[in-house]
Design goal:
Helices cover about 50% and strands about 5% of the residues. It is built from eight helices and three strands.
Length: about 170
């Protein structure tokens, strides 16, 4: 797209931490999936027990280009997943949404609170209530993880693998 500059926003650690601390349990897990594992928001919303190996702590998913991606869950993610039912196929974020009590930061109809669109809307409202005037979108969390890995490893191929990109 000639003339169109790509978005290059990253989320500072303090902002990310404040958002996670203020989020309801389902939104918190979704933010962690997007920021710690660099997952797309739709993929993060659909992660379920069949994607998580409790013995190894590995999360496996399929990327947009249908490649299989496996990565270790962070301590923060593992701590939340302990409270989920691993005997079901219900996505983790949906389980946590169902477990949550009625809160003003979740949609009125809790049955759809876990969809990627509703999670993005909850994220937008959370950013607004936290006073962030600069627009932050969930994909910025993914980009932040990618930039962080590039700064640590200086290896574009490692970042490519993390993001599930083929080229």
């Amino acid at each position: 797209y000639p003339g169109i500059r790509p978005r290059n926003v990253t989320v500072p650690l303090a902002v990310r931490t404040a958002l996670i601390d203020a989020a309801n349990p389902s939104l918190k897990l979704w933010i962690l999936f997007c920021s710690d594992l660099a997952l797309r928001s739709g993929t993060a919303a659909l992660l379920a027990p069949q994607n998580y190996d409790q013995s190894t702590g590995q999360i496996t998913c399929v990327t947009k280009k249908q490649a299989k991606l496996s990565m270790p869950a962070t301590q923060q993610i593992r701590a939340i997943l302990v409270g989920c039912d691993h005997a079901t196929v219900e996505p983790f974020v949906r389980q946590l949404s169902r477990q949550s009590t009625s809160r003003r930061d979740t949609p009125r109809s809790n049955s759809n609170a876990w969809t990627a669109g509703n999670l993005r809307e909850q994220f937008r409202r959370l950013c607004k209530t936290q006073g962030h005037t600069k627009r932050i979108i969930p994909h910025d969390l993914r980009r932040t993880a990618a930039v962080g890995m590039l700064n640590l490893t200086h290896d574009v191929r490692a970042v490519q693998h993390l993001l599930g990109h083929q080229s």
